[in-house]
Every structure is written in C-alpha cells, then in structure tokens.
Design brief:
The chain is an all-alpha fold. The protein contains three helices and no strands.
Amino acid sequence: MTISVAITWILFLGLFPIAFFWLRRAWRILFKRDFSEVALKRGVPPEDPAKFAPYAAAINLIAGGVAVAVILMVVAGGVAYDIWSAIAGSTIWMKFFADFILTRHAHPVWGKKKEPAAPTDRR
C-alpha cells in the first residue's frame, strides 16, 4: 500500500462521519429547533441565533448532501478519483468558509452600540 492509496482511503472513510455530523446538525436546527450550535464564536452564540439558523441549516444540509452524493458516486464506481476527491475537498473547505462568514456576520465587530458608562459620583 502506498501513501497515495492510504490518503485516498482516509479521505473516503472520513466522508462518512463528516456527512453524519453535518446532516445531524441540519436536522437539529430545522426540526428540533436547537440553535445551540448556530454561528458560535469562541463557544458563544450570537444575540439572536434564530435569525441565523436558516443559513446555518442550509450550509449544513447542502454540504452534508454533497458528501453523501460523493459517497454514493464512489460506491457506484461512476466517478474517477480526481473528480470525487476534488468535489469532497472543495465541499469541506467551502463549508468551513461559509461557517466562518456566517459566524463573523452574526458577531459583528463594527456597529455595536457601546453601553453607556456608569455615572461617576464626583463631589
């Protein structure tokens, strides 16, 4: 077994838990209305996670669906290694980028209203 074959198997077998977790997250958001994993930044949810839940659900559902489709294409043998590995790799990276963008949009740095300072008692 060469390194190339080992890495191919790692990528293919890694698609199973990746697809499972992404689809489970979409299921939790859409049907269980669990927004605890929506747009987390350092483990902290945004002020209104329900506002960003449809976007997080769509990101996870699309990415999980593509991962399942790649698994089925590989098992059916209807696609070459170069094609399915490119689709799988691009999907993984685009999912990470989309989650990052959603998180940064849900936790804005600019435009936050500063809380007024407590009045000081000067006598």
